[in-house]
Each structure stands twice: as structure tokens, then as C-alpha cells.
Amino acid sequence: LQVPRTPSQPAAGSESRRFANKHSKKALKASLTLGILLGMFFVAWLPFFVTNVTQAVCGCVPAGFFDVLTWLGYCNSTMNPIIYPLFMRDFKRAMGKYLPCCRRSGEPRPSAISLSMRNSNSGPRAATSLKNIL
């Protein structure tokens, strides 16, 4: 027995392929960003932790070398705000809204009140007086 084939719709197939291709590109970019962040973390902090264990066991690590490795780890923390905007468009847009150096000339600066109202999911409320309550 053979199962009869139904004719496929080329428009739906190409759209699903386009969606899958777009999704795979996003996943690849996210994987690349995560790989770079984790790679930099290990490059910066692994020598510090190995040296720290070595210092605890034999006490043979010079203080200056230990300080250099500590500052290498601290530099990793300063690299994260540089790496995120390079690879994440949404992060770049969000930072551009709040940093004066990155804001476009026509965009107004968001106020603290508008931010808190947006984050609390509450819109503007009518003024409530004591007379309306009683």
C-alpha cells in the first residue's frame, strides 16, 4: 500500500524555512555571544583561581604577580558592558535611551516618573479627593 501524497503549498513551506533560518541565525548569534563572554571569563579568572590555590598550597607566588592576576579579573568585569552592545542590538537600544552620550538629538530623556509608571503597569490615575471618597 502506498499513501497518496498531498500537494504541498510552496508559500507556506518557504515561509517556514525563512522562519527557521531566522531562528537559527538568532540562536547562532546568541551562542556566539555566550561563548565569547564565557571564554573571556575563563581567560580572566582561571589564572587567578589557579594562582590562589597554588599560593595556599606552597606560598610561592609573588605578591605582584597575584595583584596582576586580580586586576586581570577586574578588567573582565569592565569588558562586559563593551561586549554586550557589540553583539546585542536590544541592549544597545536600551542603553542608548538612558545614556546622554548615546541618545539621538530628537529623543527626549525619559523621566523617573514615566519609567516607574511604565514598570508598574499603571497608567495615569484621576486625582482622588476626600470629597469623592466620602
From TrEMBL:
Residues passing through the membrane, by range: 27-48, 68-87
GO molecular function: G protein-coupled receptor activity
G-protein coupled receptors family 1 profile domain: residues covered: 1-84
Cross-referenced InterPro entries: GPCR_Rhodpsn, GPCR_Rhodpsn_7TM
Subcellular location: Cell membrane
Membrane topology term: Multi-pass membrane protein
Pfam family membership, one: 7tm_1
Region feature (Disordered): 114-134
Organism domain of life: Eukaryota
Example GO biological process: adenylate cyclase-activating adrenergic receptor signaling pathway
Major subcellular site: membrane
Alphabetical UniProt keywords: Cell membrane, G-protein coupled receptor, Membrane, Receptor, Transducer, Transmembrane, Transmembrane helix
GO CC, alphabetical: plasma membrane
Protein name: 5HT6R protein
